[in-house]
Amino acid sequence: MTEKNEFKVLFLKSLQFLIIFILIDLSLGFIAKEIFFSQKTGKYARLTHSIQRDCSEVLIMGSSHANRHYVPDILEKELNMTCYNAGVQGQRIIFHTALQKMILKRHKPKFIILNIDESWLYESEESYERLSDLHPYYWDFRTELDPVLSLHSKFNTFKLLLRSFQTNSTLVHAVKYYFLPQKDYKGYRPLHQQMKKPQSQKIKPNNSKMVKDETQIIDTSFVNMFDEFIKNAKINDIKLILTMSPHLQKANGLKVNKSLKLMKSMASEHGIPLIDFSDDKTFIEQYHLFNDPGHLNNDGAILFTKLVADTLKAKNLID
Amino acid sequence: MLFNSIDFAIFLPIVFILYWFVTNKNLKLQNFLIVAASYLFYGWWDWRFLSLILFSTIVDYFVGRKLRIEENQIKRKFLLWTSILVNLGFLGFFKYYNFFLDTFINAFSFFGTEIKANSLNIILPVGISFYTFQTLSYSIDVYKRKLEPTKDFIAFAAFVSFFPQLVAGPIERAKNLLPQFYVKRTFAYKLFSEGVKLIIVGFFMKLVVADRAAIYVNAVYNNVDNHDGLSFIAATVLFAFQIYGDFAGYSLIAIGTARLFGFNLMTNFNRPYFATSVSDFWKRWHISLSTWFRDYLYIPLGGNRVIYPRWLFNIFITFLVSGLWHGANWTFVIWGALNGIYLIIEAVLFKSDKKNIVNVFTTFVLICFSWIFFRANHVNEAFYILKTILSNPGKLFIPGGADVVAPVYAIIAIAILLAAEIKKEYFNNVFTLGGNKYAIVRWAFYSGIIFIILYMGVFNSSQFIYFQF
To answer: Taking an 8 Å Cβ-Cβ cutoff, which residues of chain B contact chain A?
Structure first.
C-alpha cells in the first residue's frame, strides 16, 4: 500500500473508531449518569436536591461550617419560613458562586445565608480541583458553569463534553451510599462527638495563623466570584446575609487576615450585613459544644442556630 | 512537558502533522524537526537545562568521530574518559553533590570532627539519569568498536534527545535507535494503530492504576506516625502497583508515541509481578536499565566469568550502583543493596525458578519488602514501618468520606490489570479482545479502556515518579 493510501486508511479508521468511542461514551455515560442521579443520600444527593428540587425560602450556603452548624428545623420554627442547608463540605467561594448560579436558574429563595470562611479569597489550588463535584451537572448548566470551570483550565470544558469524564469518580459514592445511607436533616448533618478540655496546658489565643496570613496571596478570581455572588443575589432580589461561624479559641489572627478584611469591605460596599460570631463568648473555649477544633457538635449547632435566628430577628434582617 | 498534560495533547498532533505532511520528503528535515520538537518538549519544563543536553550531545558526537580514526590506545582511552567524565560529571554534580557532601559531613562529625561546608541549592534536571546513560552507551560502544560512529550530527542529536523517551526512558542503545534515524520512515497504519493502543494502555496504567493508588500510599507513607502495620502492608502493596503503573505506563506511552513517528523502542517491562524469582524479576522490570548495568558495569567487572566470591561481589556492586542511580538517598542505596543480597542468596541457595504460584508469591513479597525502602521518605521511617508491621498490626486505615474513592478504584484497576496480565502470561493463545480479528470488537475494547480512564482516572497532571531519577 502506498503512503497516501495508508493515510486514507488512518483517516477512515480513525473516523470509525471515533464513532464507536462516542457511542460507548454515550451509552456507558448514560448508565453512569443514571446511577449518579439515582442517589438518595450522601453528598451528591444533597447537591442534586439543592440544584434540582429545593424550593425553600431560606437557603444556607457555605462550607462544612455551614453544613454542620445550621439546623434548618430551628430556623424554620424561629423564622416561620422553609429552610434548606445547601452547605458543602470542603468547598470555597468559587464553588458556592457556581452553585448559587445553578440554583437561581430554577428557584429564587427569599434569603441566602452565606457562612463565610476567613481564608476563602486566598489562593488555593484545591478550590479549583474540587470544582469537579459539579462536573456531573455540566451538561444541563453549561452557561452557568463554563465561566467558572474554565478558570482552572481552558480545556476542562472540552473534556466535559465526554459523559465519562462528567461522572468521573462518582461510582464509588453511589455504591457506598446505596449500602450505607447517610442521614441528613434538610441538608444539615450533625456531628455528635464532644471535645474534652485539655487538662494541663493553658489555652492561649491562637496566633499561629497570623504569620501564615501575612504570606498568603489573594486570588483575584476568588474576589471576582465573591463579588459575583453578592451581585447575583442583588439582581435576583434575594436578601443576602453573611455570617461567620463560632471559633473554639479566640483567633487574633483574624484581625490581620487579608482575605477576611477584603470580604468585609466588599460586603460593606454593597450594603450586605455580615454577622461575625467568630469571637462569640458563648462558644469560646466551650469544648463541650465542639466536635473538633473546627466544628460545632449537634448541641453547639442547635445553640448557634438559635443565636443566629435571634440575631436576625433582633437586627430586623428577616422581614 | 508531561504526557498527561493538555500541553502534550496539543504538542503531539502538531508535531505529528508537521512530521508526516510537511517534512516527510526530506529525512534531514524530519530529523531536525524531531530535535526541535524534543528541545521544545524538554524546554517546556526548564529551558536552561537544554544546554546540558546540547553539551552532552556535542561532546559525545565529537568523541565518537575522533574514536573512529584514532588508533592510539591511550588517546582512545582519553577520549572515552572525556565522555564518561562529562556525562557522569553532570550527573554527579546535579544529582549527588549535596548527598555526598552531607554524607561526608555526617561521617566526619560521627568521629568528632566538624566540617563546615554549605549545601548548594541545586535543581535536578529532569531525566538527566536517562539521557546521560543513553549517550554514554554510544561512546562506550564506539570505543569498543561495537558501533560505527555517526557522521550525521542531527541524527545523533535526535537520538540523544528523542522526546518520547528523553526524560524517563526506555534507555535506548545507540545500535538499536540511532540507525532508525538514518533511514526514511514511511507511514504505516499498522504501526500507528499499535502505537495508539500502547498509549491507551499506558494512560490506563498511569491515570487509573498508579495515580489512584498514589493517593492512599501518600496518605500512609507521608504520615507514618499515625498508621499501624496493616496500613503499611496495604500501602506497600499498593505502592508496588503504583510504581509499576507509573513507570510501565510511561514506558508504554513512550514506546507508543515513538511508533506514531515510525520508530521502534525496546520493551521496558514484561509483567514483572509474575516473576518466579528475584533474578527473573530483574529480567522483567526496567529492562532497559537492567541490561544497561549488565552490559556496562556487571560484565566489565567480570560478570560471572570470575572466581565465585568475585561473581557475588559483582552482583552486589551492580545493584548497589543501580540503587544509587535511582536517587541520592540512603533509602535507594539500601533498596539496591537488598536486591543485590536477594540475588546473591538466590545464586548460592536456589537454582530453580519454576513457574508456580508459590515462587511468584514469594518473589512478590520480597520485592514489596524492598519497596518499603524505596518509598519511605527516610531510612529511619523505613525501619519504623518494618518495626510497626512486625509488632503492631493494628487497624487498617480506610479513608473517610470522599477519599475512600481512591483505594477502591485502585483495587478495581489493579484487578483489571492483573486479569489482563494473567491472561497474557498463562493463556496467551486463547480468546483476545484487544487483538480480536473483528475490528469492531477491538475498537469497542479500546473505547472501553478510554471510558474507564475518563471515568476512574485522576486528572491533575501528576508527575511520573521516575522523572525525579
So the answer is: 6, 9, 20, 24, 186-189, 192-193, 401-402, 404-405, 408-409, 439-440, 443-444, 446-448, 450-451, 454-457, 459-460
- Residue A94's CB is within 10 A of a number of other CB atoms, namely 26
Does A28 contact chain B (CB < 8 Å)?
yes
The mean of the pLDDT values for chain B is: 90
Q: Higher model confidence: residue A263 or residue B304?
A: A263
The letter for the amino acid at A258 is K
- Which residues share a beta bridge with B386? none
Q: Which residue of A has its CA nearest to B460?
A: A129
pLDDT in tens, A130-161: 898 999 999 899 999 999 998 877 777 788 88
**pLDDT score for A61:** 97
Asked if the Cβ–Cβ distance from B401 to A89 is below 8 Å, we say yes
Cα–Cα distances in Å, from B174 out to B64, B111, B178?
Answer: 12, 47, 5
Task: Name the residue in chain A with its Cα closest to that of B6.
Answer: A155
Do B447 and A162 make contact, defined as CB atoms within 8 angstroms? no
Identify the residue whose cell numbers are 462558644. A283
Tell me which H or E stretch contains A83: strand A83-85
The residue assigned the cell 548527598 is B99
Predicted ipTM beyond 0.85: no
* CA A137 – CA A151 distance, rounded (Å): 17
Q: A277 to chain B nearest CA, in Å?
A: 28
Does residue A164 sit at the B interface (CB-CB below 8 Å)?
Answer: yes
- Concerning whether B227 is annotated as a catalytic residue, the answer is no
Question: From CA A100, how far away is CA A97, in angstroms rounded?
Answer: 5
Q: B456 and A32 in contact by Cβ < 8 A?
A: no
- For residue A238, the model assigns a pLDDT of 95
Cell of B160: 540523544
pLDDT, one tens digit per residue, over B79-112 is 999 999 999 998 888 888 777 777 777 777 777 7
The helix/strand/coil state of A85 is strand
Q: How far is B147 from chain A (nearest CA, A)?
A: 32
Q: What is the pLDDT of residues A28-39, one digit of tens each?
A: 889 999 999 999
Helical pair A93-104 and A142-149, crossing angle rounded to 10 deg: 170
d(CA A223, CA A220): 5
Phi and psi based region of residue A98 (left: phi greater than 0; alpha: psi -120 to 50; beta: remaining): alpha
For residue A265, give how far its alpha carbon lies from the nearest alpha carbon of chain B (Å).
34
- Which of A168, A170, A291 to mutate to probe the B interface, most B CBs <10 Å? A168
Q: A7 and B187 in contact by Cβ < 8 A?
A: yes
* Residue of A9, A17, A155 with shortest CB distance to B443: A17
What is the bridge-based pairing of β-strands A290-292 and A58-62?
unpaired
Residue A74: half-sphere exposure toward Cβ, Cα within 13 Å: 18
Name the residue among B404, B400, B230 with its Cα closest to residue A292. Answer: B400
pLDDT for the residue numbered B31? 96
Side-chain-side CA neighbours of B134 within 13 Å: the count stands at 30
DSSP conformational letter for A244: E
Give the number of other Cβ atoms within 10 Å of residue B459's Cβ. Answer: 19
